[in-house]
Design brief:
By secondary structure, the protein is an alpha/beta fold. It has two domains: about 240 residues, P-loop containing nucleotide triphosphate hydrolases (Rossmann fold, 3-Layer(aba) Sandwich), CATH 3.40.50.300; about 60 residues. Helix content is about 55%, strand content about 10%. It contains 14 helices and six strands. It has a six-stranded parallel beta sheet with strand order 3-2-4-1-5-6, with helices on both faces. The longest helix is centred in the last third of the chain and has 23 residues.
């Protein structure tokens, strides 16, 4: 898995790897699933997609919703198809919840009594956030934190099934389709900010505002799920008279910096297993060569083909 914050250079490194391995890219990006929003979601260009097949792009219209669970179910099918054709899948993206849903697997929810569930929901709704987290941690030693919904879910499953949520997730993971090797791309904060600003300006120059105007003209609401992402949201605000055109790129830059900080925090604390941090200030081709060398050193000479065809590493 090739992960990291927005604008760090994930796509360029993934494409550089195609010179070494028969790869196909599986996008783990919650914004790139939306059709007709290519500039605003920083999708790989047509030329880049021509270099290797991409999966997970252009799945739904901007007015529809697409969950992490939905992604995980679809991704299992893509991974199976890629491996069947003897190719190596590489998951590329920055949406942590998508990555977690795929790696941790989908489990068959145990039968939970509806009446007890409603009663428990009413009880957890009255708890203060700190109490909710305390209960979740007590009932599930594997609970890794999160918001109210995640904590309430951990409490519900533990109390009503007799086993913690982490137990069910571990069982699913044991049957899962991935044994991930994470490559986390990082750059110094100042460098990342420069890349973000440069990309924001390029998005506006390439026609971001016109792209979003075209989608709005289809009849989608300004707050439609596909129009709520950073980069698109600022264009919507301009088109509805809430900001000047000259402020759009700067606003995208600010929002993207905040997103990148959250992503860096997530990848620093939420990944488990084989995690390798690489400095992405170097050219993509050099990073690709280093990744290949590290992989072959880890697995042994000649084992890549076996892995690509059967093991499910990505």
């Amino acid at each position: 898995m090739l992960v990291g914050p927005t604008a760090v250079g994930k796509t360029a490194v993934a494409l550089a790897l195609t010179a070494h391995w028969p790869l196909e890219v599986l996008s783990a990006d919650s914004r790139q699933v939306y059709r007709r929003l290519d500039i605003g979601t920083a999708k790989p260009t047509r030329k880049e997609r021509a270099r290797t097949p991409h999966h997970g792009l252009d799945l739904i219209d901007p007015g529809s919703r697409y969950s992490a669970g939905h992604f995980a179910r679809d991704a299992v099918g893509w991974l199976t198809d890629i491996r069947t054709r003897g190719k190596q899948p590489v998951v590329v993206g920055g949406t942590g919840l998508y990555i977690r849903a795929l790696v941790e697997g989908l489990f068959a929810e145990p039968s939970l009594d509806p009446a007890k569930r409603r009663s428990l929901d009413a009880w957890t709704a009255r708890l203060e956030p700190i109490e909710l987290l305390r209960w979740a941690s007590r009932l599930d030693p594997g609970f890794r934190g999160g918001g109210r919904q995640r904590a309430a879910r951990a409490i519900e499953v533990a109390l009503l099934s007799g086993y913690p949520l982490s137990y069910w997730q571990q069982a699913a993971r044991a049957r899962g389709s991935l044994d991930p090797w994470y490559i986390v791309l990082t750059v110094p904060r100042a460098v990342l900010h420069q890349r973000i600003a440069r990309r924001a300006e390029d998005m506006v120059r390439r026609g971001l505002i016109e792209e979003v105007a075209s989608v709005l003209a289809e009849g989608h609401a300004p707050n439609a799920p596909g129009l709520d992402g950073i980069g698109i949201r600022e264009a919507v605000e301009y088109l509805h008279g809430h900001r000047g055109r000259e402020t759009v790129a700067a606003a995208i830059t600010i929002g993207s910096r905040q997103l990148a900080k959250r992503q860096e925090t997530w990848f620093r604390h939420q990944l488990a297993g084989n995690v390798l941090m690489l400095d992405a200030t170097r050219p993509p081709e050099k990073l690709a060569r280093e990744i290949v060398a590290l992989w072959e050193s880890k697995l042994g000479a000649g084992s890549l083909e076996l892995e690509a065809r059967g093991s499910g590493r990505s």
